[in-house]
């Protein structure tokens, strides 16, 4: 994943040509975000190599436009199913078994990174 930041909102295009070039670079997902001053593009893909960032930026904003690149320092997946958490499907399935959804969703007071009790 990489985030490209561009001043302003003009000249940014993810048309068919840019999309094809990004796909060739391994990008499978593009999100465009912005505030009043800056436009950001989040480029993701399992095969996307950060060494291709300048080529990807050129595909979207053109070769002559300045782009600030933010590379990931840490990326992690978060799951509600970690020791004591629950997800919607678990709560729904348990509710059908006669256990209330509220009971299924009760946190057990364990914080991320603390060891589980009882050696599990």
In short:
It contains four helices and four strands; from the N terminus they run βαββαβαα. The protein is of the alpha+beta class. It folds into two domains: 2-70, Alpha-Beta Plaits; 77-111, no CATH class.
Task: Spell out the blueprint of helices and strands.
Elements: E1 2-7, H1 16-24, E2 29-34, E3 38-44, H2 53-61, E4 68-70, H3 88-96, H4 101-104
Antiparallel strand pairs: 1-3, 1-4, 2-3
Q: Show unreliable segments.
A: 90-97, 99-114
SS strand fraction? 15-25%
In the CATH hierarchy, what is the class of the largest domain? Answer: Alpha Beta
**Alpha-carbon Rg, integer:** 21 Å
Q: How do the helices and strands follow one another from N- to C-terminus?
A: EHEEHEHH
Can you name the CATH architecture of the largest domain? Answer: 2-Layer Sandwich
């Amino acid at each position: 994943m990489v985030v490209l930041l561009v001043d302003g909102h003009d000249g940014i295009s993810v048309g068919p040509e840019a999309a094809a070039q990004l796909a060739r670079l391994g990008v499978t997902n593009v999100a465009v975000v912005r505030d009043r001053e800056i436009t950001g593009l989040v480029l993701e893909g399992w095969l996307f190599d950060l060494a291709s960032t300048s080529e990807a930026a050129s595909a979207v904003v053109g070769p002559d436009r300045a782009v600030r690149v933010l590379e990931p320092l840490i990326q992690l997946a978060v799951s509600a199913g970690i020791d004591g958490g629950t997800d919607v499907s678990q709560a729904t399935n348990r509710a059908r078994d006669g256990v209330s959804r509220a009971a299924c969703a009760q946190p057990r007071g364990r914080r991320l990174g603390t060891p589980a009790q009882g050696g599990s």
